[in-house]
């Protein structure tokens, strides 16, 4: 007998049966027959160790030798993903990314399995080695343990080099069975999966029923056979394919691909194709994403393994390339986490904040604690009722949670302090102006309109991104100008002498020029934004838009309507109730408000809606953040271009940053162009910009 040939035959058969059993769940032979083949191979490998293959199925039983885990470089960089915690945020991210891509893109949504991340490297059809994620550039070689996992193909029908990313996990039921039989318990399935991969004896790793799902393939450039490929280094062998085709190819090669897949695109043909490739997937338009995400969160316990969120990815490889990556994360993918992280801390003190409308917010000052990548020192306490509900006092041990970028919240008291028993009570007076705090509804208020804190907050609100968007006037700069007495109310922003800043620390010539430019740019903000920026209670952007859309499209018309002193004039407008109507009458008849408006009008702010604004132009630029640089033939001054962007729902900002999606570059664009190119931002010249604007100008002319 040719023992070598016999061993190769046995190894091939055993691998085939393992695949049929573990991956396809379609076994062709029984356990006894399988064991007979395996025993024969083991016997032969003992007699002829020189013929044994490193990928022999016998490796699946593992060895009693100690494994060391040498470090190896990853051939593809393994980036981590940015995270969000709320379905609305994910929906917004999707729309923003689709807008930045500028064409009809598709997104795949996959389960984020709570296991151990792995990268499998193949060459000439054989598994060469398997690396943990490590630091993204170097991983630990855990090949011996990964070879014991029957769902990992040791041989594949793909001669060139290939890298495959996946997640190794253990089912909850298997975890419980395993834990009940061992003295040293694991905290959760993920710890057991990760611990098994790092078990020094692969025979022990082999006893843990590990599973794998793969989710990215990095196919090489066909000619060179090197890893200049994949979504992280786009182009190469993945070029021209999309993510779904890559998953499909991985499936053909014998890898386990998670069938629970969502596909979202506004392109119907793309949705049809996704369903052909993945019949069990969900395919729907982009608008359906939030609902899908909520549902997946609700049914997460229905799968037999732990998932801690979802991963959303752009499927088109060329779009991935266009969007590029930040220093840490790809811009074409986002993780959505089901649970916001929690941590334990101590309430050191409570700070009383007063908002522009006088509302008091207690803020917890906490013993610094690390929570999802940042150090938390403050958390919101909402109001006195919330504090009473928690029965919270200074010195208590508390649990805090964090959701995305929102400021952290105190969730519950874990242990009452013995030093300061009792519940914290808000002071009776405003800490800034000493006027008494009055309770209205759930909140306390400082009713003094001259309160310095209220005025400072009103300035911050006026300059904020959502209102006048004066980027250079952040909280710190405003506090400085306010303390100096140079800027006390919004009209001062347009009249104070910026050259006064020249002698001040931290204000170099360049910075002063930027402050001037961004104040000037803010004069182009449309009427609806100006109206909201006034900060009158009850007149946020939505109400401002409603007034304009219903013919009250200049400040004079609104003031005239208020002077009728009949709330029904305003309440006749859809979306405005009696309470808001009465507030509007109050705001727009108050002499000091009318004076404020007159001063801002004199400064050059827009107090009448553009014809187009009142018609609510389309949202074709929604989610886009533009920076304008250089000079233009048609748009003189440049703020005219800014108006076109804002009328279509886009945002204009002064400086190129990672948030910028588009750069409008005129002649002599300067350093902003270079920076935008470096960040991979979409660069648009004047004629292209005009084309985009015209394409989206099929205006509905509403007869008035
Ligand atoms: Zn006050």
Describe the structure.
The chain has 704 residues and is an alpha+beta fold. It has five domains: 3-61, Orthogonal Bundle (Helix Hairpins); 83-337, D-amino Acid Aminotransferase, Chain A, domain 1 (2-Layer Sandwich); 342-445, Nucleic acid-binding proteins (OB fold (Dihydrolipoamide Acetyltransferase, E2P)), CATH 2.40.50; 452-612, 5' to 3' exonuclease, C-terminal subdomain (DNA polymerase, domain 1, Orthogonal Bundle); 620-695, Rossmann fold (3-Layer(aba) Sandwich). 35% of the residues lie in helices and 19% in strands. The chain is built from 26 helices and 23 strands. β20, α24 and β21 form a beta-alpha-beta unit. α17 crosses α18 (541-549). It is elongated, with a radius of gyration of 31 Å. Mean pLDDT is 85; it is low at 223-236 and 697-704. The structure holds zinc ion.
Q: What can be said about this structure in brief?
A:
With 704 residues, the chain is of the alpha+beta class. The chain has 26 helices and 23 strands.
């Amino acid at each position: 007998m040719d023992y070598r040939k016999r061993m190769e035959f046995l190894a091939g058969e055993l691998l085939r049966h393992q695949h049929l059993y573990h991956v396809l769940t379609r076994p062709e032979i029984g356990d006894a027959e399988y064991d007979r083949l395996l025993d024969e191979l083991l016997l032969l490998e003992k007699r002829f160790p020189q013929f044994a293959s490193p990928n022999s199925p016998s490796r699946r039983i593992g060895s009693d030798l100690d494994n060391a885990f040498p470090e190896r470089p990853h051939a593809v960089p393994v980036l981590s993903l940015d995270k969000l915690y709320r379905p609305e945020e994910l929906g917004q991210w999707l729309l923003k990314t689709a807008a930045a891509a500028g064409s009809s893109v598709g997104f795949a949504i996959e389960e984020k399995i709570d296991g151990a991340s792995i990268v499998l490297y193949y060459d000439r059809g054989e598994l060469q080695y398997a690396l943990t994620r490590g630091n993204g550039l170097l991983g630990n070689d855990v090949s011996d343990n990964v070879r014991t996992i029957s769902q990992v193909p040791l041989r594949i029908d793909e001669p060139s080099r290939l890298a495959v990313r996946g997640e190794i996990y253990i089912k909850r039921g298997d975890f419980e069975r395993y834990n009940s039989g061992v003295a040293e318990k694991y905290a959760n399935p993920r710890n057991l999966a990760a611990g098994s991969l790092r078990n020094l004896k692969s025979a022990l790793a082999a006893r843990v029923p590990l599973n794998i799902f793969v989710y990215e393939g990095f196919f090489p450039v066909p000619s060179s056979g090197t890893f200049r490929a994949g979504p992280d280094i786009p182009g190469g062998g993945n070029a021209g394919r999309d993510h779904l085709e890559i998953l499909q190819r991985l499936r053909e090669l014998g890898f386990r691909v998670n069938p629970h897949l969502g596909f979202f695109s506004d392109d119907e043909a793309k949705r049809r194709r996704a369903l052909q490739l993945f019949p069990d997937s969900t395919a729907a338009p982009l608008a359906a994403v939030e609902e899908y995400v909520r549902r997946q969160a609700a049914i997460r316990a229905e799968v037999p393994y732990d998932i801690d969120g979802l991963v959303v990815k752009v499927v088109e490889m060329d779009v991935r390339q266009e969007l590029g990556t930040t220093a840490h994360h790809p811009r074409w993918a986002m993780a959505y986490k089901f649970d916001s992280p929690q941590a334990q801390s101590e309430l050191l003190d409570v700070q009383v904040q007063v908002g522009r409308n006088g509302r008091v917010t207690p803020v917890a000052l906490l013993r610094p604690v690390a929570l999802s990548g940042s150090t938390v020192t403050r958390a919101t306490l909402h109001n006195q009722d919330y504090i009473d509900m928690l029965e919270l006092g200074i010195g208590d041990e508390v649990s805090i949670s964090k959701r995305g970028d929102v400021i952290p919240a105190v969730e519950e008291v874990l242990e009452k302090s013995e030093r300061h028993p009792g519940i914290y009570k808000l002071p009776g007076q405003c800490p800034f102006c000493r006027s008494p705090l009055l309770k209205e509804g759930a909140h306390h208020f400082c009713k003094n309109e001259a309160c310095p804190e209220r005025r400072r907050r009103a300035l911050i609100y006026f300059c904020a991104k959502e209102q006048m968007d004066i980027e250079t006037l952040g909280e710190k700069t405003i506090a400085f100008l306010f303390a100096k007495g140079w800027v006390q109310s919004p009209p001062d922003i347009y009249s104070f002498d910026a050259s006064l800043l020249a002698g001040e620390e931290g204000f170099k010539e360049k910075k002063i020029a930027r402050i001037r430019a961004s104040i000037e740019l803010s004069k182009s903000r449309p009427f609806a934004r100006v109206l909201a920026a006034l900060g009158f209670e009850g007149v946020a952007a939505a109400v401002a838009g409603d007034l304009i859309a219903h013919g009250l499209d200049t400040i004079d018309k609104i003031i005239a309507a208020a002077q009728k002193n009949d709330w029904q004039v305003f309440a006749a407008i859809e979306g405005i109730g009696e309470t808001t109507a009465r507030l509007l009458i109050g705001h727009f008849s108050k002499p000091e408000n009318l004076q404020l408006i007159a001063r801002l009008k004199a400064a050059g702010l827009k107090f009448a809606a553009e014809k187009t604004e009142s018609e609510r132009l389309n949202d074709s630029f929604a989610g886009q953040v533009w920076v304008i640089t250089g000079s233009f033939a048609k748009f003189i001054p440049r703020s005219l271009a800014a108006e076109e962007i804002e009328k279509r729902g886009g945002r204009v900002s002064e400086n190129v940053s990672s948030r910028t999606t588009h750069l409008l570059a005129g002649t002599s664009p300067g350093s902003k162009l270079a920076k935008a190119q470096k960040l991979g931002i979409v660069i648009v010249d004047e004629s292209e910009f005009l084309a985009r604007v015209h394409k989206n100008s099929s205006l509905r002319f509403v007869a008035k």
